[in-house]
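Thread: "does anyone have the structure for this chain?"

Original post by V.I.:
We have the sequence but no experimental structure in hand. Need at least a predicted one for the grant figures.
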Amino acid sequence: MLSLSILGFLYERPMHAYELRRHISGLSGHIRPVSDGALYPAIGRLEKAGMLTRHEEPGSGATPRQVLSLTQAGRDELLRRLARPAELEITDRNSFSILLAFLGYLEDPAAQAEVLRRRLAFYEEPASYFYDEGRPLRAAEMSDRFRKGMMSLAAVTKRADMEWLRQTITDLEGT
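Reply from O.Q.:
Generated one for you, tokens below.
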């Protein structure tokens, strides 16, 4: 998801790595802080793949800043990943949130709706954090108060997400 975040924020405008790190941390840092040890290698991989370029600009001190810009290949890759996200980007809550942060860059409402339909289909499959002989358990079946609480919170969130997904799909289909 780090590369998707890098591509997404650079799609908006060129920025230096420190600023990019701050934006990414604002989006996902409370869940997964972004370290320099993860960010700079990811930037290097994207640069090597021809998806971004860097140039120097004067910094506030004596050291120049490296400003990163997205290439056309980087723009194309971002739009491809938004239109056809990986399964994990649909099923994992945090990954899906990052995907949503940039989904508006897809100009086609039908393509946006298709991504949301995939998330809705994922929610419509029976699932649980806990199983009994392969059968998903519901919160009402739990005796441990903390597991029951976990399940109850997940159910409330799932219902709210599904309502938002259905409404947004309907809105997108009307445009």
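V.I.: this helps a lot. The chain has a mean pLDDT of 90.
O.Q.: and The chain has eight helices and five strands.
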